Q: What sequence folds into this?
């Protein structure tokens, strides 16, 4: 009975511990990118910028319509006053009440096409902000790929370090037995213990690196640090075959179409060109039309026929008025403000044109470097495979000699250290090659998957 109760308590504590963190069986690179795109706060911040620009565009379109306003007033005066509604001077100790209401509207009929050009400029700005969202997404996708492959690399390094530590512990056990029977020296035993300590340190270092890279990946995906999941490793053979033939011209021509930075540079040129038209609009005359309707009431007003005080609603009907105004304003000289504004707008266009050329040149340079890095990573991976295989053969050969007393402990553990380093280097080079290939996918706009 006590054993059953203890088992129940253990299971309860286990489920509570597991329930405290959300668990996923596996997360592929594609799923990691999708999760980041859905949750990341930087993307959401950029999307808010798009929404603000949409409102600015809506406001600029609304500026084409006439405005409309209504106003009403009511005032009281005691004693001497001039009543404008009745047109008389009021004396005495009486209260005078005045009321009025107005409805007015105005519109700019012509303003040098500035409002039209402003609408076009705001549309271009909206396109710029949309491409900014795409840029943020692209940069974050590359960050996810970097951290995902970094986590896989560090995970394999951790596994390799554990295997190496097990090998060293087994060697220490054998040397301890040989030492007990007098076949090994104190120096041999100390060397074996030192190797175990070194491998244990490698385990801690690689485990910390793995945990940090997983934490960075979770933060990009806006996940809790307690979330538990495993990563899916790529098929190295497929990756190598996929990028066997990669030319600069093909990648660069595709990148010019897909990279949002290039598209944004083109929009910036269009916006700068439109701003020139807006600045030139100040050279043109401005035509405004306005209209208004109003009426008034006075407590002192008299009916001109009966000389009796007019009723409230009768006055509002008789005292109504309508006005219409057309105004023309021709700019002659405004201290060269318009001239300077146009000159600045032209310089901004030249600057945007130069920025577009710089963006294109930087992309060309980056892609050339990316292709070079990919080819170099392939060669380094092949070289690291050979280095590991040869160092493994060397270790096994020296170990056989060491076991029969034909090699000393320094030779033995030097060979083991060389093999361990070669294995670590091979793991790093393998995933460096994968990463460089995915960078090419990033620039050509290809979905990044394994």
A:
């Amino acid at each position: 009975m006590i054993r059953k109760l203890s088992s129940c308590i253990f299971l309860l504590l286990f489920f509570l511990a597991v329930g405290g963190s959300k668990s996923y069986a596996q997360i592929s690179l594609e799923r990691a990118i999708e999760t980041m795109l859905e949750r990341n706060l930087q993307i959401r911040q950029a999307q808010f910028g798009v929404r603000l620009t949409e409102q600015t565009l809506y406001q600029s379109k609304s500026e084409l319509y006439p405005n409309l306003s209504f106003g009403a007033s009511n005032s009281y005066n005691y004693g001497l006053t001039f009543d404008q509604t009745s047109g008389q001077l009021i004396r005495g100790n009486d209260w005078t009440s005045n009321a009025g209401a107005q409805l007015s509207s105005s519109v700019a009929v012509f303003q040098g096409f500035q409002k039209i050009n402003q609408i076009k400029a705001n549309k271009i700005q909206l396109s710029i902000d949309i491409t900014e969202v795409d840029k943020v997404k692209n940069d974050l996708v590359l960050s996810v790929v970097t951290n995902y492959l970094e986590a896989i690399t560090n995970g394999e390094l951790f596994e390799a370090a554990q295997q190496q530590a097990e090998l060293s512990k087994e060697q220490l056990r054998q040397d301890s037995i040989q030492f007990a029977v007098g076949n090994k020296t104190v120096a041999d035993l100390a060397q074996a213990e030192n190797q175990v300590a070194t491998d244990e340190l490698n385990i801690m270092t690689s485990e910390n690196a793995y945990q940090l890279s997983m934490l960075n990946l979770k933060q990009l995906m806006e996940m809790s640090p307690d979330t538990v999941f495993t990563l899916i490793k790529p098929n190295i053979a497929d990756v190598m075959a996929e990028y066997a033939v990669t030319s600069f011209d093909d990648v660069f021509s595709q990148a010019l179409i897909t990279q949002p930075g290039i598209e944004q540079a083109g929009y910036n040129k269009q916006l700068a060109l439109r701003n020139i038209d807006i600045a030139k609009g100040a050279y043109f005359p401005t035509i405004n039309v306005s209209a208004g309707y109003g009426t008034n009431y006075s407590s002192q007003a008299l009916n001109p026929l009966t000389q009796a005080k007019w009723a409230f609603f009768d006055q509002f009907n008789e005292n109504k008025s309508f006005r219409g105004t057309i105004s023309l304003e021709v700019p002659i000289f405004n201290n060269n403000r318009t001239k300077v504004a146009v000159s600045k707008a032209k310089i901004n266009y030249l600057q945007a044109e130069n920025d577009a050329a710089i963006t294109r040149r930087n992309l060309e340079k980056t892609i050339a470097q990316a292709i070079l890095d990919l080819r170099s990573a392939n060669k380094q991976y092949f070289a690291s495979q050979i280095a590991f295989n040869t160092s493994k053969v060397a270790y096994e050969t020296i170990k056989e000699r060491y076991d029969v007393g034909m090699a000393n402990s320094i030779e033995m553990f030097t060979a083991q250290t060389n093999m361990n380093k070669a294995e670590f280097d091979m793991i790093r080079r393998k995933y460096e090659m994968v990463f460089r290939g995915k960078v090419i996918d990033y620039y050509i706009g290809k979905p990044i998957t394994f």
Remarks:
- Residues 234-284+331-450 form a domain with the Outer membrane efflux proteins (OEP) fold (CATH 1.20.1600.10).
- Residues 114-180 form the longest helix (67 residues).
- DSSP finds eleven helices and eight strands in the chain.
